[in-house]
Amino acid sequence: MSHQWDVIVIGSGIGGLVTATQLAAKGAKVLVLESYLIPGGSAGYFERSGYRFDVGASMIFGFGQKGTTNLLTRALESVNVSLETIPDPVQIHYHLPDRLDIKVHRDYKSFIEELSNNFPEEREGIASFYAECWKVFNCLNSIELLSLEELGYLTRVFFQNPLACLGLVKYLPLNAGDLARRYIKDPRLLKFIDIECYCWSVVKADWTPMINAGMVFSDRHYGGINYPKGGVGKIAEKLAEGLEKAGGHIQYKSRVTRIVMEKKRAVGVELFNGQKYYAKKIVSNATRWDTFEKLLPAEDLPKKEQRWQKRYQKSPGFLNLHLGVKEEVLPAGTECHHILLEDWSKMEEEQGTIFVSIPTLLDPDLAPPGYHIIHTFTPSWLENWQELSPKEYQAKKESDANRLIERLESVFPGLEAGLDYQECGTPKTHRRFLGRIEGTYGPIPRYKLPGLLTMPFNRTAISGLYCVGDSTFPGQGLNAVAFSGFACSHRIAVDLGL
Ligand SMILES: Cc1cc2nc3c(=O)[nH]c(=O)nc-3n(C[C@H](O)[C@H](O)[C@H](O)COP(=O)(O)OP(=O)(O)OC[C@H]3O[C@@H](n4cnc5c(N)ncnc54)[C@H](O)[C@@H]3O)c2cc1C
Q1: Is the pTM value of this prediction over 0.90?
Q2: Which of 63, 388, 423, 428 has the largest CB neighbor count within 10 A?
Q3: pLDDT above 70: residue 270
Q4: Is 395 in a helix, a strand, or coil?
């Protein structure tokens, strides 16, 4: 069989695009097949009535200028493209039960001071816990981040920086809650650490790997949170542009329905229209569930995947509201990202914690003059949106949206009166437009696991098939899936002898 391509990547999420661009930059012939009209997946966008809405991610890590963990900056540079970014002075403004009101300032000292002033008895514990996070981050940030499945790289990186490597090995099986409880006793402060984890891992601290926590809790003060000018969708657009510049190709409206196997090897893909493409290596940027249960026969689920599914389940998706609002709704000094929770016992419940992002505070050009975008979302299970008639579905969207807006009135009084535009999405919407099974945000542990030790890397049980994205090490988030893309492309480059 003649291979048209060295590598085919199914899907153009950030994980898929980083894999593709890294490989194209190394000289591989790469084809990306994307089912949607634009690249980006959960980091995409849509436009309505003069607003440009991010579909998902908007708190962006990885755009720092130093160290090794600034993987989005590096991914763009590798294919000679760049993006203007706008620094966000506050990562999150928390509005929590019992009037606990905390801002995570970009400036580390200001954040620690604000948190310690709220928990004066725990001043030392706070400093010690976050200092542990810095230890993880400093180890990560001093080594090249590539494939942990490649022995040559592991040996090289170990001899270059043995202390950092040994440091990371120590933290790999730990969860953030294990360390938080070592230093902190106040139950309210431990709940705060829980929500610090929950807001990106969608599980509490006890179940959140320490490696991820170390990365998030430190990089927000190091590289910082930076918003791409023109919207989050620009990241994928620029990577796609870089891919073409480097000789690769991206094809839209190209939904892959099957991975073609020959002699137990993945050798190609088939599209919805029957068109087949062949390559030496196939990469799936779809979730592991989609990859192994839809693109391959579900009855042949490899043992390794069966084990993984026993450990990890699909997280809920989100109920999303994309709002256009009059600028007077936002008081002076409003921050870009907010988390709202009224009752600690509801943190992990359906529509418990509310997330808010107001990107127009950083980039006003995303909305018409005099208006802002508020993207607010809250976890919601697909099952609550199924088996409804179209009328019932519409009615539930309206009533749930109204309840969300009502709750947000506590932070943004006058929100409802100031609405100019409103669009509501559910887990069904994300399933349809982002191609994610059950509209899930990604995998979460079914029970307490040993940190990141059980998260799979990029090679799979099927020869010639690799996975990349948020259901591979190290998990969800744009910088995390970029890490997965660097690792995947490195492993494939070694396998192809590039
Ligand atoms: C509401 C929300 C808010 C978020 N907020 C943040 C945030 O603030 N910061 C942050 O860092 N992260 C955030 N995230 C998480 C982040 O967006 C994701 O972890 C990340 O974008 C996932 O990237 P990925 O590479 O795994 O692929 P995905 O984004 O899932 O993209 C996969 C791509 O593959 C395509 N595809 C799938 N199946 C096929 C097929 N069969 N054929 C062809 N194409 C296919 C899809 O269309 C899609 O384009 C958020 C996510 C959501 C949903």
Answers
A1: yes
A2: 63
A3: yes
A4: helix
